[in-house]
Amino acid sequence: MYYNNISAVSYATEYAxxxxxxxxxxxxxxxxxxxxxxxxSQCLLAGGSRMQYSDxxxxxxxxxxxxxxxxxxxxSVASSLYWFLMNNSTxxxxxxxxxxxxxxxxxxxxxxxFFQNSNKKIFHGSIVTSFDGEGTPLISQHTxxxxxxxxxSEYFKDTIYYVRIFI
Length: 167
What we know:
By secondary structure, the chain is of the alpha+beta class. The chain has one domain: endopeptidase fold (from Nostoc punctiforme).
């Protein structure tokens, strides 16, 4: 099994501006939270990642005939999704895995970018869905819904993590 980055990007570009109604859109609460990690998890799922229910759980489950759902924090919170990807890469579990890249120039379609603030907290994530004429990655994301946009200057807080995805 391999990560189909083209399928992940196709999903991202289809649902970046108009979220998939098969998943609950996690609206921000004040200045916190949002749907960025859930959107990335959906993209990873579309790219062939299998849900994982034990050890390090990563899954989404609708509760039939209701607006409710179940998912672990690894699915729905940017810092936890980053942690999950890094830790899952050291195990033989199902689900997506991540490898930290050294530089923005190493990114390819379907890779993820995580942003850390000055408090050392990863607060947002996005997926690389295209490149501009200069070779700069363009991202798609939720919470601040965007399709093939440049990285916003307000995301340059402290650290940006570039993550290659594999299964």
